[in-house]
Amino acid sequence: LNRRLAEFGTTIFAEMSALAVRTGAINLGQGFPDTDGPEEIREAAVRALRDGLGNQYPPGPGIPELRTAVAAHQQRRYGLSYDPDTEVLVTAGATEAIAAALLALLEPGDEVIALEPYYDSYAACIAMAGGTRVPVTLRPHDGAFRLDLDELRAAVTDRTRLLLVNTPHNPTGTVLTREELTAIAELAVERDLLVVTDEVYEHLVFDAAEHLPLAGFPGMRERTVTIGSAGKTFSFTGWKVGWITAPPGLVTAVRSAKQFLTYVSAGPFQYAVAEALSLPDSYFDALRADLLAKRDLLASGLAEAGFEVFRPAGTYFVTTDIRPLGESDGFAFCRALPERAGVVAIPNAVFYDHREAGAPFVRFAFCKRTEVLEEAVRRLKSLP
Ligand code: PMP
Ligand code: GLN
């Protein structure tokens, strides 16, 4: 393994899911639903397979039906208009979109500012692209992890090329506010930075929180690559259908990298996701209501079990602080938890450069059936 990748080892998600299988523990680690997405969308995939739609290489940018559906979705939800032919690119999940964007847009030595804790592929992809990551740490404040705008501004240097943003934010569940996004946008414009914004949890927001796409802020459309994914919104994480929306020059750049990574992907699933994106609002509302109830079940259960809970405004993850349990090392806690309580969780420290800042935080996923969450809570409450 080369020096660029050596520090990353095996992704925590693979490690923890393997641990769950080995120990038979309830897996609240890796974020994937234990119930598949809509029957009619599965049927659409079967129909595409049977009718020979997408069984051979689909077009490089993605099938026109899906690009049109992505553009229509951005218009309908956010009033953002993108040309399906020149401003939308279909990718092999958001993961490939992140990789292709960073490989295409960074010069060696360019600095990338990422909100810490950051999703683990960001660090690896910045490294593969020869960039340097500059983390800005979200810190607990009034029950949520918040961005310090002065710290963000101070992190920009003459070598900063790109801001890598994620809202709703994995693993903290923070949804960036209009004020925070305005400040990010102003900074990007002032310092002429590119922005890659990972919005895969755009539909998973709760209570009064609202997802605002960064591309909608003044001066942002022309400098922003927005990333979406069918995995989270439609509960098909195994299909690996994602996309970007961006102005033509940025789409062309990202496609230059994408063509040599996968060229294309998942032909029949693209047809099905095109249909999924056109589902009525009631689908998205029901998804949110279902996850809201599960969030409350798990968050309350964890609090009763003695954790400090950061009730998330978005995503399907809840971050906890284990110090009230007399613990301080999230890694050790998560490695022992399957034996101690039959539950798997993720130590947030893996998402930090400043590992000590993330040490006491542990993430639990709540995209699971109610009875599974109830059993997990029962087990955690009897934690020895
Ligand atoms: N970004 C974030 C913030 C994620 O949490 C995930 C995975 N859950 C991804 C990207 C990857 O998405 P995909 O499965 O579509 O590749
Ligand atoms: N995004 C998912 C999570 O945060 C995991 C995806 C993966 O396994 N790479 O849990």
The helical percent reads: 40-55%
How much is the radius of gyration in Å?
20 Å
Unreliable spans: none
Named CATH architecture of the largest domain: 3-Layer(aba) Sandwich
CATH class of the largest domain: Alpha Beta
As laid out across the biggest beta sheet, the strand order is 2-10-9-8-7-3-4
Overall pLDDT level = 97
What's the quaternary structure here? single chain
- Shape estimate: globular
The beta-strand count equals 15
What is the percentage of strand-forming residues? 15-25%
GO molecular function: kynurenine-oxoglutarate transaminase activity; pyridoxal phosphate binding; succinyldiaminopimelate transaminase activity
Subcellular location: Cytoplasm
Cofactor: pyridoxal 5'-phosphate
Family: Belongs to the class-III pyridoxal-phosphate-dependent aminotransferase family.
Provide structural commentary.
The protein is an alpha/beta fold and 384 residues long. It folds into 2 domains: 3-30 and 282-381, Alpha-Beta Complex (Aspartate Aminotransferase, domain 1), CATH 3.90.1150.10; 39-277, 3-Layer(aba) Sandwich (Aspartate Aminotransferase, domain 2), CATH 3.40.640.10. The protein has 15 helices and 15 strands. The protein has helices at 3-6, 12-23, 39-50, 64-78, 93-105, 120-128, 149-155, 178-190, 230-234, 248-261, 267-277, 281-304, 330-341, 355-358, 370-381, and strands at 26-27, 88-91, 111-116, 132-137, 139-141, 144-146, 160-166, 194-198, 224-229, 242-245, 308-310, 317-321, 343-344, 346-347, 361-365. The protein has a 7-stranded mixed sheet, sandwiched between helices. Helix 4 packs parallel to helix 11 (267-277). The protein starts with a helix and ends with a helix. The mean pLDDT is 97. Residues 11, 13, 30-31, 170 line the site of glutamine. 4'-deoxy-4'-aminopyridoxal-5'-phosphate binds at residues 31, 93-95, 119, 166, 170, 198, 200, 229, 231, 237, 240, 242. Belongs to the class-III pyridoxal-phosphate-dependent aminotransferase family. It comes from Streptomyces adustus.
